[in-house]
Amino acid sequence: MIISKQEDVTGAVIGAMSGAPNDRLRTVMASFVRHVHAFAREVRLTEAEFEFAIDFLNRIGQATNDAHNEAVLFSDAIGLSTLVCLLNNGQDGASETAAALLGPFWRANAPQMENGASILRSPTPGAPLFVDCNIRDGQGRPMSNVRVDVWQASPSGMYENQDAGQADMNLRGVFISDENGRFSFRSVKPAGYPVPTDGPTGEMLAAQKRHPYRPAHLHVLAYKPGFKTLITQVFVDDDQHLESDVVFGVTRALIGDFRKGQGTPPAPDVDGDWFSLNYTFVMEPGEAVLPHPPIK
Ligand code: BEZ
Ligand code: FE
After folding, report:
1. Looking at the structure, do residues 36 and 78 belong to the same domain, yes or no?
2. What is the pLDDT of residue 271?
3. How many domains does the chain have?
4. Alpha-carbon distance 53 to 63, whole Å?
5. pLDDT score at 90
6. Which ligand 1 atom sits closest to the C-alpha of 105?
7. How much distance in Å is there from the Cα of 193 to the middle of ligand 2?
């Protein structure tokens, strides 16, 4: 098609793409082009802004490596990851536990451990935390043999792969739920942390006068063939950033009851404050697929 005016461009592009044999590709790309073109018209995108945006995208790619995924981080910081997550998963806890972002820091192949074991693999600051959770199906029946992957940042604010001071796989572990649907482990009470701000996403946050903090949380990925993989996070109830998570990941049902321990601690080496967390996860039947790890 020969273009006569700017209004012609959108139809020309969608027409050019209309021969794609894959229906879904045709639908998604036509909608994408319609919305991107509408966006450019709505803001009357200047050439300088377009050039900046292209450079920004290129820099997202350049900032991505085996240990860091800037594209995930950017999608998170504009709320797109949470939107996609909630579009595709339970969000109100009615039939399954609300989903939350996988985030950029999940690693496959964390060590499998016995229930009750500690996921600390090098000295880690923070109050001891004893986590004791249940997994149920939609009818409230205990689910055994669920493979539960847990991971969290150190209270110093970094995941082990970001921090040479932590042992490999520190604060990561895989547990198998027992015949009562229980899994348990020892850790430290998570602390909030800033997402990495040394790339283009950090530049955007600064330009928007946004803080980079995520409220403290524990990540969970629960996997069992025949059930939809549950990817979620449990948030610490007293965190100051629950209402302003930089990646919009907090839903009310996911705020956990991190209770300050009373009386005799569950392990003899504990002195000082300690905490417990009990939480029940609900999984629903579906396809058990694992995400691609965003990092190695
Ligand atoms: C995380 O929770 O690990 C995370 C999620 C989104 C962006 C950065 C970190
Ligand atoms: Fe996290």
Report:
1. no
2. 87
3. 2
4. 15
5. 67
6. 3
7. 8
Quick one: 97 and 193 in the same domain?
yes
Residue nearest to atom 3 of ligand 1 (CA): 103
40 and 76 part of one domain = no
Mean pLDDT, consecutive 10-residue segments, the chain of 296 residues? 94 97 98 98 98 98 90 94 87 73 90 98 96 95 98 92 93 98 97 94 98 97 96 96 96 94 91 95 92 82
- Say yes or no: CB of residue 245 within 6 Å of ligand 1: no
Q: How far apart are CA 257 and CA 242, in angstroms?
A: 14
The per-residue pLDDT for 268 is 92
Please give the number of the atom of ligand 1 that sits closest to the Cα of 233.
2
What is the domain-level CATH number for residue 210?
2.60.130.10
Distance from the CA of 104 to the center of ligand 1, in angstroms? 6
pLDDT for res 86: 87
What residue numbers bound the domain in which 242 lies? Answer: 70-282
105 CA → ligand 1 middle, Å: 7
**Phi, psi angles (nearest 5°) of residue 186:** -110, 140
Select from 94, 89, 115, 56 the least CA-distant residue to 249: 89
Query: In whole angstroms, what is the distance from residue 35 CA to residue 240 CA?
Result: 36
Cα(17) to ligand 1 centroid in Å equals 35
